[in-house]
Amino acid sequence: MTREPYPSARRENITDILHDTPVPDPYRWLEDPDGPETKGWLLAQAELYAKERGPQRFKSRVAELLRSGSVGVPAWRGGRSFFSRRTPDQEHAVYYVVEPDGTERALIDPMAIDPSGVTTLDAVQPDKEGRLLAYQISVGGDEESVLYVMDVTTGERVEGPIDRCRYSPIAWMPGGEAFYYVRRLPSTEVPENETQFHRRVYLHRVGTSTEDDVMIFGEGLKMTNYYGVSVSRDGRWLQVSASEGTAPRNDLWVADLTASPIHRPELKVVQEGVDAQTGLVFGRDGRLYVHTDRDASRGRVCVTDPATPGFETWRDLIPQDPEAVLSDFAILDDLERPVMLVGWTRHAISEITVHDLETGERVGEVPTPGLGTIGGISERPEGGHEAWFGYTDNTTPPTIQRYDARTGETTLWAASPGAVEVPEVRTEQVVYQSHDGTDVRMLIIAPAGEASGPRPTILYGYGGFGLSMTPGYSASILAWVEAGGVYAIANLRGGGEEGEDWHRAGMLANKQNVFDDFHAAAEHLIATGVTTPQQLGISGGSNGGLLVGAALTQRPELYAAVVCSAPLLDMIRYEKFGLGATWNVEYGSADDPEQFRWLLGYSPYHHVQEAVAYPATLFTTFQSDTRVHPLHAWKMCAALQHASTADRPVLLRNEAEVGHGARAVSRTVDLSADTLTFLARHTGL
Predict the structure, then answer these.
(1) I need a labelling partner for 1 at 20 to 30 A (CA). Which of 439, 510, 564, 682 fits?
(2) How, if at all, do strands 300-304 and 536-541 pair?
(3) Torsion sign over Cα 350, 354, 360, 362
(4) Can you spell out the DSSP letters for 142-170?
(5) Active site residues
(6) Across the chain, what does the average pLDDT equal?
């Protein structure tokens, strides 16, 4: 079959000399999305993709499986509960309130706000009494999060728009008259290339101009800092945290708001300059509960007095487990013997244990529906004997489970609203060895019944930022496996499946471990007869796009097809674009000579070699992506199209009016169908 010719892409003779090392960059002109040449090249790539795409498979089945809808864990406030739900025919989830008498009302429907479907609901936070609701929306995938406040009873907006609120927590004071939040400085006050940074913590009084907001924290600190802020249920304690970009550590302060005014809180250090992550929960019993990985890579819960929150006063309540990672906890105290529910992931599989609140002694476990993922253990802020948590696994759409500590029973509280027929699959977790002998786990999802020889297989991974790959309902995975394929998800170093040490074993100077774990996963699938190199496709997005970019340049012979979505690929210049400057704590900076060597050692764009038969490759990019600029994929696509000697195509799917994160369901269906079709075509499914 003759491949269509690639669009012409000019190669420039640009070479930077960095730390006495020449670094060629022949496609730098593609960094300008508004340049006429870039626009012309993108248009030509779109025409090529339209010709090469072929009949779209999987679309109807993916759409059908997504008709399961979804449901979110409830938040309880003053007798009301708040939750999200997406019904089978909805493009976006709708946010609801349920009154004490059971009456249910929709509060925020993104499609009612904008019928085009490009507006997304980014975050919500009811006030402590459930009378006001702060919510953040963005348009076209830019994730810029404009903040509004709504009167829950009337549905009317009482505040907003307040812009520059991306990634802002909302910490309500009791009574709903004021809240703390995080906002970027105006663009007029910062250099042009730093407008995504320079956050500050402010106090805002509802009904007043943001011009009157009081900055309470952040002045003079690093421009890439992210801030967290929360207020205890009784309004006494303020907690402020700061982390440099996405660093796995934070500084932490508390203030007693009865001893200093809310607009000038006297913040006391809990930890500063410590290489650990710590968060606080002010208990209804007057104790301070500390969730930390300090001296405990897998996490632990300590207790202390809020008046003396320093490390030297911490006492272990739930010590570190040698195998499981402590993810969250909830306190149930309307019992003769109050308890703490503790959520864990043990080798990426979730469980919840029950402990005596005073001593930490384990007294039981919470029954769960199966071997899957638990999300967000929720309790009533005023206390009680019930908890709610989300549950999903590879064949179960999201459900909400209710646990009653008086009876010890777990019951289904809410299911995803759509009835779908889910295919039978066989799931197993295997352990394989990486290049250095490290044991790595991998989930393999295959058609039910006996395995019959090697099959077309997709290997997926992420391996970064401490994020864990855990079982979950996926229409794409189920559609692929139902069609006869195998889907494998590797729990690579760099993730959080085995705790913070596991994350750090795959970051900064150790990043190559992630790629080696991935190659070893592929080799294991081949060696055990699951698949062959001619039937093996790989897929990853964002940091996972970097992963598969490194995989295809380091071991092109190992893979038949690659889907590389919203990727980081030019690791020498990544800090100059999007939110890249906040990630140098994960990857390193090209400004530092040693870190430059790490980055150049694997940067996929710089390792594309002439006259190599590369796998079939599809880059998927999103024009409004403000996290990872599409230029990474554009430059890499041009480089691969120039260099590859294979008759397998290198294609670009560039999508407008969507970004890195949330999108309408119909957009998700199209993207899934296109990527599965491409992988099926080039792995023989």
Answers:
(1) 564
(2) unpaired
(3) negative
(4) ----EEEEEETTT--EEEEEE-S-TT--E
(5) 542, 660
(6) 96
- Asked: is 15-63+421-683 a CATH 3.40.50.1820 domain? The reply is yes
What does the radius of gyration of the chain's CA atoms come to, in whole angstroms?
25
Instruction: Report the pLDDT averaged over residues 421-425.
Output: 96
pLDDT in tens, 618-662: 999 998 888 999 999 999 999 999 999 999 999 999 998 888 888
In eight-state DSSP terms, residue 610 is: T
The b-or-e profile of 446-484 (16+ CB within 10 A means b, else e) is: bbeeeeeebbbbbbbbbbbbbbbbbbbbbbbbbbbbbbe
Asked if 376 contacts 328 with a C-beta cutoff of 8 angstroms, the reply is: yes
Structure tokens, 650: 């290198």
Most distant CA pair in the chain, distance: 77
Parallel/antiparallel/unpaired status of strands 94-98 and 104-108:
antiparallel
Distance CA 145, CA 123 (A): 8
Of 470, 242, 248, 238, nearest to 372 by C-alpha is: 470
Q: Which two tokens stand for residue 328?
A: 């969250």
Whether the per-residue pLDDT at 1 is higher than 80: the answer is no
CA quadruple 495, 499, 505, 509: dihedral positive or negative?
Answer: positive
110 alpha carbon, distance to own chain's centre:
21
Q: Where are the beta strands (DSSP E) in 435-555?
A: 439-447, 457-460, 486-490, 536-541
Each domain of the chain, given as residue ranges in start order, spans: 15-63+421-683
Q: Is the sign of the CA dihedral 268, 252, 380, 109 positive or negative?
A: positive
| Predicted confidence (pLDDT) per residue in 150-178, tens digit | 999 999 999 999 999 999 999 999 999 99
Which candidate, 493, 538, 495, 535, places its Cα nearest to that of 516? 493
Are 521 and 531 in contact, with CB atoms under 8 Å apart? no
Facing residues of 229 across strands?
240
Is 427 buried (19+), middle (13-18) or exposed (0-12) by CB count in 10 A?
Answer: middle
How high is the pLDDT of residue 514?
Answer: 98
Task: Give the pTM.
Answer: 0.97
Exposure string for 508-526, b = 16+ CB within 10 A, e = fewer: eeebbbbbbbbbbbbbbbb
Q: What is the pLDDT of residues 424-448, one digit of tens each?
A: 999 999 999 999 999 999 999 999 9
pLDDT band of residue 610 (cuts 50, 70, 90) is very high
Residue type, 535: Q
Is the CB of residue 377 less than 8 Å from the CB of residue 330?
A: yes
**Cβ contacts of residue 296 below 8 Å, gap of 6+?**
319, 320
Q: What size, in residues, is the chain?
A: 685
